[in-house]
Prior knowledge:
heterodimer, A: alpha+beta, 4-stranded antiparallel sheet, B: two-stranded antiparallel ribbon, two-stranded antiparallel ribbon
Amino acid sequence: xxxxxxxxxxxxxxxxxxxxxxxxxxxxxxxxxxxxxxxxxxxxxxxxxxxxxxxxxxxxxxxxxxxxxxxxxxxxxxxxxxxxxxxxxxxxxxxxxxxxxxxxxxxxxxxxxxxxxxxxxxxxxxxxxxxxxxxxxxxxxxxxxxxxxxxxxxxxxxxxxxxxxxxxxxxxxxxxxxxxxxxxxxxxxxxxxxxxxxxxxxxxxxxxxxxxxxxxxxxxxxxxxxxxxxxxxxxxxxxxxxxxxxxxxxxxxx
Amino acid sequence: xxxxxxxxxxxxxxxxxxxxxxxxxxxxxxxxxxxxxxxxxxxxxxxxxxxxxxxxxxxxxxxxxxxxxxxxxxxxxxxxxxxxxxxxxxxxxxxxxxxxxxxxxxxxxxxxxxxxxxxxxxxxxxxxxxxxxxxxxxxxxxxxxxxxxxxxxxxxxxxxxxxxxxxxxxxxxxxxxxxxxxxxxxxxxxxxxxxxxxxxxxxxxxxxxxxxxxxxxxxxxxxxxxxxxxxxxxxxxxxxxxxxxxxxxxxxxxxxxxxxxxxxxxxxxxxxxxxxxxxxxxxxxxxxxxxxxxxxxxxxxxxxx
Lengths: 254, 305
């Protein structure tokens, strides 16, 4: 808490000239259609400042995009009676379904650990703060497992040196979103960092939504499950019967 | 060509799904099994969430079985009376199975028990079938026509006898009813049609002729899986129509080829092929339980999802 106060004080101190982010996104909506196979979003912007560029360490930029938080159950296997069985589990109240961090330099060098924690920049910080809420001892290992598994699956990514900053004023990067996206608002945060400290933040949202047939099917399955179920069966039976009739015609044609 | 599945919320290659559907469809037509015991694990493997895989697979089995059963109706190899008795048992069993499934879910061990069910049942049935059909092939190659099934056992002592004309049987309704219940329970727990249990049970327990067995089991499977599909769609919202359509387009085409191949092979050859396939899946699932997994942790949606 004390550290947090100190950081806030540092922020308030007029050590840095006022610098603000002006942001642009190539798209602020992602439409999930039937043939959706991922999306690349261009994040670009400029730094607005009253005075000239301050001296000292150059400006660094971090862009973090995080998908909607969802509760998950993490289970651990142990060997019992010769086979591997789930023995322990921890409920994590919320972990982002997607998390991408793009930086203009090595994350550990451009931002101090305290600032990283305070602003929950890296995914470990975004999750561990949640994992700590669960009372179970050893919950941290389970939170680590979430990060490890999702990183391997390509849902969490840290891409260092992918933000281009020119003249300490203009910056741009692109965030690749995978095909397996969950619906919801994707919080997009931009941090301006100087000498390891975050001097300005900016937050906006990318709206990820199913559209068209996808939207219709999803809504039907939730709002009228019986109709949806019967429709599924009808399609199945028609397809089965249709194929049968089709092949009969082919065979008779010979 | 990638396609985004609206309920599963994953993006997969459409041709992969068509191919999987086709492969399983061929098996379905050949053996009269729905193919669920093969398809459900395959769907897990390509990254479909298990709950969606199980529910959607039930829907797909309806389609491939329907196509298959029509082909069998043409050849008059469906025993409707026997099928109805099995069906009554099957629907009862499916209802019981759902209750059991939810109970296991509350214990948090449903994955393990489903896999153990697979290993145990596939192992026993695959093994028995393999040995039996190997013996049958050996016998028939020595002196053809000498194959004889046991005509009288304890089953013939039971009451409520009914004549099943198509099967050429005069037996009590109790054994087929019990077989139906048992298969219904398993199909709800394991997310399969249950043909791989029912076909051997009909051949060895009820003594039905092999040619009638396939059509009759398909007939029963259609109704039980349709019931399961509706149950999943209305309670768990896990039936993915887009996934089902892709699988069944491949499946119904495959089933037609399978039915043709099935008529060209001898019954013993069919059975030994099915046995090898069943044992293969069993071995794979068994090894997964025995070998230390690369990742000890696994993620799952929370209960109130």
